[in-house]
Amino acid sequence: MLVNAKYELQTFDAAEALLRQPEDAGHPRTLVVFVGRDLAMGERAASVLKDAAAHLSRAAAAAKFKGKSGTSLEVLAAPGAPASRVILIGLGAAEDTDGREAAKPFEDFVALGGQTAAKMGAGARAVVLFDLPEGVSAAHDSVGQFALGGWLRAYKFDHYKTKKKDEADRDGPMEVVVALADPDGQSAAMSDGGHLAEAVMLARTLVNEPANVLTPPEFARRASELMKLGVEVEVLDEKAMSELGMRALLGVAQGSEAGARLVVLRWSGGAQGAAPLAFVGKGVVFDSGGISIKPAASMEDMKGDMAGAAAVTGAMYAIAARKAKANVVGVLGLVENMPDGKAQRPGDIVKSMSGQTI
């Protein structure tokens, strides 16, 4: 994964033992604690921060931090705290128009993971006490969702840069210990969150690639790597597409030297013979407009006209990695639309695979 984050599950006792160890001078420790309204904490979190409670209360009062959901407070070098940085993340209920607490409980742990990762920052060495304040309940997959949000927040696409200034490149990846009562009970959710993160980042990377790299044949090659997960992959080249009568799709590509590809991805995890769910993704790796060329302003963004095919590829990755009990087919139509003497002209008539003229 193109991420700068590592997540590890530990028991509360193991995490507290880690917090008692001396800090690495080059990597100050960060402690993340979730709080409710008026700094209400879970029992284990309150115990860990008991010697720093008075200082944290004063800091919160000075910053007018009350623990509302979506807010946070960073406190540095708090006396009595077992870490140089303490980050309080608010999960308290929001207020309605009358100033009363809303009844809806906190539930977006993906967003919480992203918010927490952003506050910790690149290269952080952190312990997150997953000890939720009273009134905030966790689902069976909350920790996996939390890590998913962190992985997605830490994603970066910079491997074409010759000079990298991000502090993460100097300090290494963000390393996060998530402390909770039953790490073993959350390991499956963590694995599931990891598969989803990999799928999303695969799609993001495909969209981020420049068009001179991600040609239709290269896209097809990368999609073919899903065979490692048990996906059946079929790639049709221009000759095979022509024999099947796919003139409408080939018409878009005929001005490009890169060629066209049609990729079929099949996952057979459901009942034998059951009708599959089908996804079809548009994969124009660059859309110049052809002879009807688009305005120059922002044309570089037209490399994103293949995002539909990227989304289908990512979805098929997630389906296969999670061993979904379903039959699913993904189809990617991969072409490049360029101006050329062979390019399709406005007013040309082509026949589609169905026999319809267009």
Structural features, described:
This protein is an alpha/beta fold and 358 residues long. It folds into two domains: 5-208, Leucine Aminopeptidase, subunit E, domain 1, CATH 3.40.220.10; 216-337, Aminopeptidase (3-Layer(aba) Sandwich), CATH 3.40.630. The chain contains eleven helices and ten strands. The strands form two sheets. A six-stranded mixed β-sheet has the order 1-6-5-2-4-3, sandwiched between helices. Strands 7-8-10-9 form a four-stranded mixed β-sheet, sandwiched between helices. Helix 4 crosses helix 5. The radius of gyration is 26 Å and the shape is elongated.
Into which percentage range does the β-strand content fall? 15-25%
User: Can you say what the CATH homologous superfamily of the largest domain is?
Assistant: Leucine Aminopeptidase, subunit E, domain 1
Distance between the termini: 42 Å
Flag low-confidence runs. none
Order of helices and strands: EHEHHEEHEHHEHHEHHEEHE
